[in-house]
Specification:
This protein has about 375 residues and is α/β, with parallel strands linked by helices. About 50% of the residues lie in helices and about 15% in strands. The chain has helices at about 20-40, 60-70, 85-100, 115-120, 130-145, 185-190, 205-220, 245-250, 255-265, 280-285, 295-305, 325-340, 345-355, 360-380, 380-385, and strands at about 5-10, 40-45, 75, 80, 105-110, 150, 155-160, 175-180, 195, 230-240, 290, 310-315.
């Protein structure tokens, strides 16, 4: 049976440096509420500390606020950069969010994306992936209720344990960031984690999809596990409108600012492929979608042809358009993309075609009934039939 594709967003977030940051964060919260009402399944919130554009430093704080405003959408850290945090502190915050959201929290982990973040904290970027692995394996032990004594070059735990057990048993879903290198796939395969393919449509990231998924499956098999494609999430930028011309006009609002940041200051995880390309070329190559619901459907089909089945497509939140047109894009996705991808209307099509194909029979029967009824009434009351 085919996997039903779930929908969500990956909110870094990206906000131009000429806008008020307080209003930007409030608008992000309003967007999550809007997505919850539309029926989106997931929202993942990033952690960044430098470069001025991605202005949420604590996904946990944002998620706590968003959870109070929403009813059903699941909320994930996208990601908590584990080398920046003591594992006991990270584990305790995750467990608290698991309780506060009553199981709606998802634990996304990664090594940290922006090199400038690591430099600001005096962390050698070459150590980050190994530290992420070390941290998550300690956190899993803490989730399990163990008391942990562990001395590392960057943290020390002495008889440490979490005061609470997780709300979700045995712990919240864990997903690891995966872009171009196979490190995320190896970790996911070892522990059965989900994967957040944050550069799925970007140069390098798209080409690495199958490779990293194979790595994950191979490592999983070595550890007696099997990867679940429902926990595979692909991320890509999208803006759609009712016409392609309208979509291109909408994104004139902010796409150049985003492109300058995405390809220049933050040239990592495949982002360098955005540099010195027109919007039309980026859309033509499949790195972004600017167009209609049909263009969005084509992108999903392209990813399915490349990757096979996957569980969630996460639209990369980007603020290319103003807020009203941004919300409209997400609405159009739910109205016109989701039902096609998931064959939601196949039975409706069948019912419509059946009724149309048998129209003469049904109308003939209805007309015959009316004639018969009138004849019977005329016999009973001649005056009523006149």
């Amino acid at each position: 049976m085919a996997i039903k594709l779930r929908n969500g967003i990956f909110l870094a977030p990206f906000h131009p440096i000429d806008e008020d940051p307080t209003l930007c964060i409030q608008r992000d919260l309003e967007l999550i509420d809007h997505l919850d009402k539309l029926g989106y399944d997931e929202a993942w919130i990033g952690e960044h500390h430098s470069a001025g554009f991605e202005i949420i430093a604590s996904p946990e704080l944002f998620i706590a606020a968003a959870a109070e405003r929403t009813k059903r959408i699941r909320l994930g850290s996208g990601v908590i950069s584990l080398p920046y945090h003591n594992p006991l502190m990270a584990a305790n915050r995750v467990i608290q969010l698991d309780h506060q959201t009553k199981g709606r929290f998802m634990f996304g982990v990664g090594p940290g994306l922006l090199p400038s973040d690591a430099f600001a904290m005096g962390i050698d970027p070459s150590t980050q992936r190994d530290r992420m692995v070390e941290s998550i394996e300690i956190i899993l032990r803490l989730f399990n209720g163990e008391r942990v004594t562990h001395k590392s070059e960057w943290f020390t735990l002495v008889d440490a344990t979490c005061q609470l057990r997780p709300y979700t048993w045995p712990h919240p879903e864990v997903a690891v960031a995966s872009s171009v290198t196979p490190s995320g796939g190896k970790l996911a395969g070892k522990h059965g984690f989900g994967m957040l393919c944050v550069a799925a449509t970007q140069e390098g990231g798209y080409d690495a999809l199958g490779i990293n998924w194979k790595v994950a499956n191979d490592v999983a098999a070595e550890n007696g596990r099997k990867m679940d494609p429902e926990k595979l999430r692909l991320v890509g930028p999208v803006h759609i409108a009712e016409t392609r011309a309208e979509a291109y006009k909408n994104v004139e609002f902010g796409i150049r600012k985003w492109q300058d940041y995405f390809s220049g200051i933050s040239a990592v995880a495949g982002r360098q492929g955005m540099e010195n390309q027109t919007i039309e070329d980026l859309a033509k190559s499949g790195q972004i979608v600017v167009g209609t619901p049909d263009d969005a459907i084509a992108q999903i089909r392209r990813l399915q042809a490349k990757q096979g089945e996957f569980g969630v497509f996460l639209q990369l939140a980007h603020n290319w358009a103003n807020f009203e047109n941004t919300k409209k894009s997400y609405e159009l996705w739910q109205r016109h993309v989701t039902p096609v991808i998931n064959n939601a209307n196949t039975k409706r099509d069948e019912a419509f075609n059946w009724a149309r194909d048998n129209k003469e029979k049904f109308i003939g029967a209805a007309m015959a009934t009316i004639v018969k009824h009138n004849e019977e009434q005329a016999k009973k009351s001649p005056k009523a039939a006149e």
